[in-house]
Design goal:
Chain lengths: 113, 110
């Protein structure tokens, strides 16, 4: 299995809702990432996990809360989001934090009403 | 400061024409560079990695440290090459951080 799988593919939520995005990989990768991508823009790094521990938080607002329950899974918990948080959220994984390429999922397209 | 510059937002060529997507970087250390491609409604995919020196889908890219460039080239463009292309720099800091360029949309006309 050489894929990064993200669910759901689409999510519409109100500003008061709580929801979670899920990401799974079975490539034995030990580093996992969350990115935010706006239309026709490059991905912006949000969080990096290495060996299930948070290693980078790029000053992301606390309404986004990441979680890495095990080496194959990465979640992003969402609460009280703003309309400007509407975007494509990408998960990626790599063998480690060294100079290995990152493999991306299809993303979750999030719309905040 | 570390930076990746892709000067063209849009590159439009006819099928069969040569293609060069430009990428320049600013980094004081030893760079590792990638090209990623994002076809319409598809995931971001790794296209090339400079250390592998492969040719994927007819594309090649050579790292030129003197000119701090990593341009992507293909001698004969195909319509299916139409996509968004991102150049990305991996820092030598073991952080996993990728610095992306702003991207170039390649449009190959029939």
């Amino acid at each position: 299995d050489t894929e990064v799988t993200q669910t759901p593919k689409h999510l519409v939520m109100g500003m008061t809702n709580k929801k979670s995005l899920k990401c799974e990989q079975h490539m034995g990768h030990r580093a996992m990432y969350w990115y935010k991508q706006k239309a026709k823009k490059p991905p912006e790094l949000m969080f990096v996990y290495s060996y299930e521990k948070l290693s980078i938080n790029e000053s992301v607002p606390s309404r986004f809360s990441p979680e890495c329950p095990n080496s194959s899974l990465l979640n992003l918990h969402l609460h009280a989001l703003q309309p400007e948080d509407s975007a494509l959220y990408l998960c990626a994984s790599s063998q480690g934090l060294g100079r290995q390429p990152q493999h991306f999922g299809d993303g979750t397209r999030l719309s905040i009403l | 400061a570390q930076r990746v510059t892709q000067p063209e937002k849009l590159l439009s060529v006819f099928k069969g024409a040569p293609v060069e997507l430009k990428c320049n970087y600013s980094y004081s250390g030893s760079p590792e560079l990638f090209w990623y491609v994002q076809y319409s409604r598809q995931r971001l995919q790794l296209l090339l990695r400079h250390i592998s020196r492969e040719s994927i889908k007819g594309f090649t890219a050579d790292l030129n440290k003197g000119e701090t460039s990593f341009h992507l080239k293909k001698p004969f463009a195909q319509e299916e090459d139409s996509a968004m292309y991102y150049c990305a720099l991996n820092l030598a800091s073991n952080t996993g951080k990728l610095i992306f360029g702003q991207g170039t949309t390649l449009q190959v006309k029939p």
